[in-house]
Amino acid sequence: MAGIDYTERIPNNVNLSENRRLQRALEDWQPKFLEWWKDMGPLGFQAKDVYLRTAVSVDAQGWANFGYVRMPDYRWGIFLAEPEPGRVVNFGDHKGSPAWPEVPGEYRGVLRRLIVTQGDTEPASVEQQQHLGRTCPSLYDLRNLFQVNVEEGRHLWAMVYLLDAHFGRDGREESEALLQRRSGDADKPRILGAFNEQTPDWLSFFMFCFFTDRDGKYQLASLAESGFDPLSRTCRFMLTEEAHHMFVGESGVQRIVQRTCELMREHRTEDVRKHGGLDLATIQKYINFHCSVSLDLFGSEVSTNAANFYTMGLKGRFEETKKDDDHTLKGATYSVADLVGDRIGTREEAALVSLNERLRDDYVADCQRGVNRWNQVIRSHGIDVELRLPHRAFHRAIGSFADVKVAPDGRVLSEAEWDARHHDWLPTAEDQAFVGSLMQPVTEPGRFASWIAAPPRGINGQPLEFEYVRLA
Ligand SMILES: [Fe+2]
Ligand SMILES: [Fe+2]
Predict the structure, then answer these.
(1) Of the candidates 114, 191, 122, which has an alpha carbon nearest to the alpha carbon of residue 157?
(2) What is the whole-number distance in angstroms between the Cα of residue 243 and the centre of ligand 1?
(3) Looking at CB atoms within 10 Å, which of 241, 275, 293, 406 has the fewest?
(4) Helix/strand/coil (H/E/C) assignment for every residue in 260-278
């Protein structure tokens, strides 16, 4: 069961050949996916050999196989985590009843929306990152970008499998639509805001992997708790891939911070721009931006949708089964951030409608752990600067703070104060132009751009000077 059948046209561990209708639907979608990939996937590298990992099994051992692949030949397929015998619905009104192998009829529309919304983010990020290959800081980083891209492509496959297998004609139409929307397109945008932003440079890319892929981790983790068992098993396997994306983000920013600190010490200045580095103040602005747009992805602080998803048993909390309460949350409360007078405080709210905020809390704590590790690097250089997450009310477009102006430290501001100061907190056109000016491709094996330190080790035990992408 854990083994993946690679002799099939669509690699899978779901006995696809035994379901002819589904197999035909997916085989019909496959060339359209490839067309999308060639159109919207990494520009300029489709014919190059890339040292990529491919899943060969969904169990803990022998997860991945490394080798040179041309991206259009990547074996995208359908991989679900092992079923848990006797699994039950662990929360909500159906708590204790057997997990559903099929979609409960009354939840069909809601579940489809959840899956489509998750699915839409996967191709969106590939589109956002389409141009980055041309300005890679090293072959090592180029390879990591492509690894993330092909895995996001596979996550799209994962969601399309659920749609085609369980939602009939509607599901097939949604599968097509997932290939038709485009990130940032005025007429056919992607569903969620952060996935219509640009990822124009590698600082943005690493921040995106750190903050926005981490939203993915928390969404997938709460869908992995779902009573709809195929969704749970799909998301559990996706989470193993997501971990690598966050590694790319966190280690990427960490290497930038390290290089910045080296330049600060060497030249005894905070202004490392003229020495080919990214100053900490600019890094802080990018943190502020990417964190705030990612916080929006969790939705409104108070949400009856979130309550319904939970009560229906479709979307749980992060680590639902590890929590020690009744798992129905009826009558429970949770404290939610809110505007109280002219400052930001908290108020108690029914726990069920506060589930978005609770998930955001888990997310913020996780982000903070990463920022702490970046700050350790700064401290280890004897530099007295701290990077900080912006206050959760800063620069929000969704929820209670969408209409308030708030500083990164949480002070509520007048419009005039905001207008006077926001250049200090968010990347300006000049900042972006400067970051862009540093983005000169470095493609000699083992070499790294001036603004980023080399990683401590290569991929899969290979040396740093390994030819991770064959450009010749
Ligand atoms: Fe993903
Ligand atoms: Fe991801």
Answers:
(1) 122
(2) 10
(3) 275
(4) HHHHHHHHCCCCHHHHCCC
225 CB neighbour count, 10 Å cutoff: 24
Ligand nearest to the CA of 213: 2
Question: How many angstroms does the Cα of residue 149 sit away from the middle of ligand 2?
Answer: 8
- Helical segments of 327-452, H only: 355-380, 415-425, 429-438
Tell me the one-letter amino acid at 258. Q
The residue assigned the tokens 């209409």 is 403
* Res. 213: pLDDT tops 50: yes
Number of Cβ within a 10 Å radius of residue 336: 22
**By the 8 A CB rule, do 404 and 393 touch?**
yes
Task: Tell if the pTM clears 0.70, that is, is over it.
Answer: yes
Strand 405-406 relative to strand 343-350, pairing: unpaired
Distance 350 CA to ligand 1 centre (A): 31
Q: Does the pLDDT at position 240 exceed 90?
A: no
> What secondary structure, in 3-state letters, does 3-72 show?
ECECCCCCCECCCHHHCHHHHHHHHHHHHHHHHHHHHHCCCCCCCCEEEEEEECECCCCCCEEEEEEEHH
Which pair of structure tokens corresponds to residue 463?
């040396």
Q: What distance in Å separates the CA atoms of residue 432 and residue 201, rounded to the nearest whole number?
A: 9
Residue 1 pLDDT more than 50? Answer: no
Q: How do beta strands 333-340 and 343-350 pair?
A: antiparallel
